[in-house]
Amino acid sequence: MNARPGDAIPEWVMESVRPERMRTMAAILRDPNPVHWDRKAVAALPFGLGERTINQGPLGLSYILNMLMDWAGPASVRRITMRFPKVVLDGDRVTAGGRVTAVREEGGERLADCEVWLARAGETPALEGTATVALPDA
Amino acid sequence: MSAPPSAADIEALVGHEFPGGTYTIAHWENFLLTECTGSEPLPDGLAHPAVLFHMPILGAGTSIGGMFALGRAESDFSIGIESYDWEILRPLREEVAYDVRGRVTEADRREGALRGGPRGTYDRIRFRFELREPDGAPAAVSTITWTYLRTA
After folding, report:
1. Which listed residue, A27, A70, A92, B114, has the most CB atoms within 10 A of its CB?
2. In whole angstroms, what is the distance from residue A31 CA to residue A11 CA?
């Protein structure tokens, strides 16, 4: 795979963040925090979020992982570091995006360092960070 | 309700080690988690990398609730994510018994605005979890940094 600094990574879109997936995820994670499964608990918070559950951070991060794996392969991700400036809510349409910042050789692999993010249309990112993926030979 | 922790209480968490243990990602667990991400199942028994949140926590012998309690969170709503840093040294796979060790590497009290909110007091705790394959080879490292808002 050819990749050069400045290349855009094909976007990955979650058309609608679904609350039932947050509930399943909460059970898998053994996450007791009701903000992920109780809309009324979120509405009671002083943040004006309305009756919409808050997506788990790792679930938002997983959309970026999906973008990277669709681009470079299912075993390609070597590192990802994310910050979470905003929450993602049920019903949101979010797009994962990224850009190659460097390509280098390490440990016999060709690695691409990338800026990555997840955002609602027209907004600054809800998640942002960096990732390193191993580029396939072909 | 217990008294809120002092800054010294929080700083004393550095070095705290969880019991440790092993964790095996079951096929059903990986299937459901991968579906939650919106992806098709991965090939060849690969686990979705998003397992790197809960697998190290549970494998190390703690839980999300246990980590809230360790930092004496005022409530579930007082916890915020500063960052997650996941290093994958070998692809993670279903049905492999990973050895997991976890500990607190940083903990301190800070003043500032979280997520654009008003300035306030919060504690910042960093957890580091290391995963090894059954033969001892390093497989992954998950570093979780959470904030614990203090209002009391």
Report:
1. A92
2. 29
Q: Which of A121, A114, A127 is nearest to A60 (CA)?
A: A127
In which residue ranges of chain A is pLDDT below 70?
A: 138
Q: Is A23 on the interface with B (CB under 8 A)?
A: no
Contact yes or no for B83 and A62 at CB 8 A: no
Domains, chain A, with CATH or none: 8-134 (3.10.129.10)
Please indicate, yes or no, if residue B1 is contained in any of the structural domains: no
Enclosing domain of residue B48: 7-150
The per-residue pLDDT for range B69-93, each reduced to its tens digit, is 999 999 888 899 999 999 999 999 9
Per-residue confidence (pLDDT) for residue B2, from 0 to 100:
64
| Chain A residue with minimum CA distance to B117 | A47
Give the total number of structural domains in chain B. Answer: 1
Q: Could you tell me if A93 lies within 8 Å of chain B, comparing CB atoms?
A: no
**Better-predicted residue by pLDDT, A19 or B2:** A19
B2, part of any domain: no
Nearest CB partner across the interface for A30, out of B44, B58, B86: B58
Residue of B32, B84, B114 to mutate for A, most A C-beta atoms under 10 A: B84
